[in-house]
Amino acid sequence: MINTNKLLLHIVFNTCVLMLLAVGLYFLHVSGFRFAIDQTVADCLFFLLCIYTGRWLCYQYYLRNLFLAFGIASVTALMFLAVIEYLLVRFAFHHPYAGFIELLHGDMTFFVAGMVLGMLLKLISYSMRKEMLEAKLKAEQKESEFNLLQSQLSPHFLFNVLNNLYGISVTEPERIPKLLLKLSGLLRYSIYGGKKTFVPLKEEIDYLRGYIEFEQIRISDRLNLVFDIEDNCDPAILIAPQVLIVFLENAFKHAKNTLQPKIDIDISLKINHNFICLQVSNTYNEDASSHAPDVESSGLGLTNTIKRLDLLYGNDYQLEQKAENGIYHVELNIKWKVK
Hints:
Blueprint: H1 4-31, H2 37-60, H3 67-92, H4 100-171, H5 176-192, E1 199-200, H6 201-219, E2 223-229, E3 237-239, H7 245-256, E4 263-272, E5 275-283, H8 300-313, E6 317-324, E7 327-335, E8 337-338
Parallel strand pairs: 2-4
Antiparallel strand pairs: 1-3, 3-8, 4-5, 5-7, 6-7
Helix pairs in contact: 1-2, 2-3, 2-4, 3-4, 4-5, 4-8, 5-6, 6-7
């Protein structure tokens, strides 16, 4: 199949060369050098053939590090092209006294310049094609990694919830029906909304509210919860799905594991200029784990979420985590996207 763009590029290039040839012939004609026109045509055609020969030899030998074969092929190409020009000048342009040695000597400059220009054009084309291929491979690799990470989020969430439900079913089985009803709504969004690259922030906020209500039912009277979540956000603002929920999950998980009779969790989600700002604070048990819950101890969900943030946002997000006086703080700022 012919590459249309490549063919068009060659047509444009040859047209430019022919236009330069026409301009040169015109000035030669005006200047009175009528007998030099035939030789000029032959030299220009020879130069054009040298350019394409340089491109072909560069691709066949030079780029494959076959330097000896490249040298031999270059000398052979010079002799072949010189013979073609000699025959063209002598028989097509009717110069019976044209000498082959004189033409070969005069063609050396055109040959070297044409070969160098052809090789340069090929090297530039090869370098650009290689960079585009590498960029395409990186994009495909990132997309594959992103799909893998995204597919792991729902099982991670479901794994944590089922563990919690099992514990409640043993001690308080009467609470299970209400929790299962709330869980079905969360899973519906987790399965269908999680397949998209970006979703409206409003849908993600509704999902977070549903999760908080689920945890309130599950933890009951032991929870001291303060949350301030944006109510009226622009429907055009988009966010990657399920990048916020993991920080809420970890807050409830680590707060619940403390030995204190009451656990404190503070959640704030606001729109500040061009950023979605999430702040989460929770109590945690310093004695149970000598370090604050970090990426390693928070399991698969947080690790994958940070990787997804890197893939989708690059430098357009900031994540800070710190612990002080038995309180673990998380602040995440994401530059929002729009439809």
